[in-house]
Amino acid sequence: MSESRWVEVCGIDDIDEEDVIRFDHEDRTFAIYRTDKGDFYASDGYCTHEKFHLSNGLVMGSVIECPKHNGRFDIPTGSAKRAPVCVDLRTYPVKIEGSTVYIHI
């Protein structure tokens, strides 16, 4: 695996409030979120339950609901919040520089 670094993801206007997008980098996939308060977060892209991509899910405030079985995760912490998910998501630091979103991977 390559060394940890900040990677440019998208522009801040590319994600609406209470939305999520998919970001693929090298051999990994991530979910990039914008909460109802306008804050940006990042996590692994697949649900820990059955590996369905979270970019197809529903963001409600600071929670992402997986589109396959409606399991929920807390976006800022990645913690599993509703069955059938029971394994937390891995999260990544996010920074905004100017109008660009970066994640540290």
Automatic annotation (TrEMBL):
UniProt-recorded name of the protein: MocE family 2Fe-2S type ferredoxin
Alphabetized UniProt keyword annotations: 2Fe-2S, Iron, Iron-sulfur, Metal-binding
PROSITE patterns tied to this protein: RIESKE (PS51296)
NCBIfam families: MocE_fam_FeS (TIGR02377)
Organism (species): Cohnella soli
Cofactor(s) this protein requires: [2Fe-2S] cluster
UniProt feature coiled coil, ranges: none
Top-level division of the source organism's lineage: Bacteria
Domain Rieske: 7-103
Similarity comment text for this entry: Belongs to the bacterial ring-hydroxylating dioxygenase ferredoxin component family.
Pfam families in the cross-refs: Rieske
